[in-house]
Write a structure and sequence with these properties.
The chain is α+β, with helices and mostly antiparallel strands and 328 residues long. It has eleven helices and ten strands.
Length: 328
């Protein structure tokens, strides 16, 4: 009986969340549907308590199956009223060694609600791509962070790719909603002064930069993989998922296709521990202990001091040692 009650609780809660988040985009009043679901489950419990347990669980199973079939039919879309910072989708084209990125975000943030919008077209020479840095941005606990990948070029330019939830204008982030198709997926290419500064200087997050050891051909392949994924999202929208499709797992799957042999680890789920994972596989500067890399790589104060400096990218890296062999 205890096992049956656990199953009943799991099914009830899952269906409740699915209905709550899935109905958000419809005209159906969510509260009334949730009350109806609660009344249905209460009826099942009444049946079970009157000696009709088998029939009750069959009825519950049919009800849960109906909710599941409805939920599976919910499809992602690119046609919604989006929040300004994810309103456009980055795309890219490659001609020989030149890459052109469209809709590179370069906002001037004053507060989270006061900003100047700028979407730009930028071109990069693949042969001059010379570095890859990972930035982790923590907003609460150490185990959770947003992952940004910054590609550097010989002229000092940087472009950051960020895998983000694509929020509608009236939405805010929800870890639970991320399990239940509340958000679409977005890949944004952005200027460092935008995507890092908004986190450190505006939102008050704590950011760390780690230089990545990767052969030049793999760095170029990852850069192109981001472009390919971004282009696909224009034609094939996807839902963000808190566990399976997020800012860490998407990068992991791209890298696994490029490099192969990357081990699975719980650190891929807790993105704040990603440096430990990369250090273990030799992807960071192995001349220093990881604790020292974390200390030297904390860019929060440097980003706040640099603020709107035209040399923002160079100033946040002051004190972070260059790799001994950047292309090794």
């Amino acid at each position: 009986m205890t096992f049956a009650l656990v199953i009943l609780l799991i099914v009830t809660v899952w269906c409740g969340f699915a209905l709550w988040f899935g109905l958000r985009r419809s005209c159906t009043p969510r509260v009334f549907v949730l009350l109806a679901w609660g009344a249905f489950v209460f009826g099942v419990l009444i049946m079970a308590s009157h000696g009709q347990a088998r029939e009750a669980y069959i009825v519950l199973g049919l009800g849960a199956a109906a909710v599941l079939l409805w939920w599976l039919r919910i499809k992602p879309s690119n046609d919604r009223v989006w929040a300004d910072d994810v309103a456009r989708m980055t795309t890219g084209s490659v001609t020989g060694r030149e890459v052109t990125l469209h809709n590179v975000r370069n906002f001037d943030w004053r507060t989270t609600t006061d900003y100047t919008q700028r979407w730009e077209t930028r071109s990069y020479d693949l042969e001059r791509l010379c570095s890859l840095d990972m930035i982790l941005s923590h907003w609460s606990m150490r185990s959770i962070a947003h992952v940004l990948m910054s590609f550097g070029f010989e002229d000092g330019a940087h472009v950051v790719f960020s895998v983000e939830i694509r929020r509608e204008r009236d939405e805010s982030f929800s870890e639970i909603g991320g399990f239940f198709k509340e958000f679409e997926l977005s890949i944004i290419a952005a200027d460092e002064r935008d995507v890092i500064r908004v986190r450190t200087n505006v939102r008050g997050e704590d950011d760390y930069l780690y230089r990545i050891r990767m052969p030049a051909d793999m760095t170029r392949s990852l850069f192109l993989a981001y472009i390919d994924q971004a282009n696909r999202l224009v034609h094939e929208p996807r839902f963000y998922n808190t566990i399976t499709v997020n800012c860490t797992t998407l990068v992991y799957h791209m890298m696994r296709r490029i490099a192969g042999g990357l081990p699975i680890s719980f650190r891929l789920l807790f993105s704040g521990y990603l440096p430990e994972y990369l250090y273990r596989v030799g992807g960071l500067d192995m001349r220093y202990p990881l604790a020292k890399l974390r200390e030297m790589g904390r860019i929060t104060d440097r980003a706040r001091a640099a603020d709107r400096s035209p040399h923002f990218s160079a100033e946040i890296r002051d004190g972070v040692p260059r790799l001994a062999s950047p292309r090794a």
